[in-house]
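Colleagues,

For the teaching module next term, I've prepared a clean inverse folding example: a structure given as tokens, and then the sequence designed for it. I'd like students to try predicting residues themselves before seeing the answer, so please don't circulate the second half yet.
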């Protein structure tokens, strides 16, 4: 992979990561509630789910998912149900931010919740199936495996940076959320965002 091709892919990775989606919503929500440092489990969980998506595409499972209507629909509706569940839980959250919670169980819940948000998003897999071939070169001196490793590593690195930026920006909002009514509004807003993300995923159809 030449430097020019990689820089183009880097730009594409950036636009993929900053685009609004369930992962970004989850990170922003975590940043507001827990602060940027405590959002680390959320970000790592998202990357594990994203990494599995990338690996699935790299070994060809993504192509099967993209071509199989049954498998695609099954995973899609799992993702829709999970996002709706997250939205309902957020709507029902207490009207209090509380202190940053470093309890190990809380960190594990953040991690696995985020993991499933990205894992149950077949849109990402279909997108990667469409994206990777555009940058794979048969004439390159490097093998397809090494090119895929570079692209996968680039996607994850960019997404980590972008998610930390989202968490940092969100954590700054915490100082302005200093009343029960504002916290309740925020909880319901993010609950609605999760449900909207579920509706968008439900409406998504393969082309």
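(Answer key — instructors only)
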């Amino acid at each position: 992979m030449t430097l020019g091709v990689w820089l183009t892919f880097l730009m594409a990775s950036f636009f993929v990561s900053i685009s609004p989606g369930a992962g970004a919503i989850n990170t922003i929500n975590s940043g507001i509630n827990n602060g940027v440092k405590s959002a680390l489990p959320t970000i790592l969980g998202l990357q594990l789910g994203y990494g599995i998506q990338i690996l699935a595409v790299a070994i060809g499972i993504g192509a099967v998912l993209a071509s199989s209507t049954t498998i695609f629909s099954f995973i899609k509706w799992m993702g829709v149900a999970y996002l709706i569940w997250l939205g309902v839980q957020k709507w029902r959250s207490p009207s209090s931010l509380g202190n940053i919670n470093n309890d190990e169980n809380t960190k594990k819940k953040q991690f696995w919740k985020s993991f499933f948000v990205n894992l149950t998003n077949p849109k990402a897999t279909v997108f990667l199936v469409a994206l990777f071939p555009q940058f794979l070169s048969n004439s390159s001196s490097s093998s397809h495996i090494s090119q895929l490793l570079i692209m996968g590593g680039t996607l994850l690195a960019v997404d980590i940076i972008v998610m930390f930026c989202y968490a940092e920006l969100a954590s700054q909002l915490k100082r302005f959320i200093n009343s029960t009514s504002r916290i309740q509004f925020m909880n319901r807003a993010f609950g609605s965002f999760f449900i909207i993300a579920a509706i968008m995923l439900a409406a998504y159809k393969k082309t």
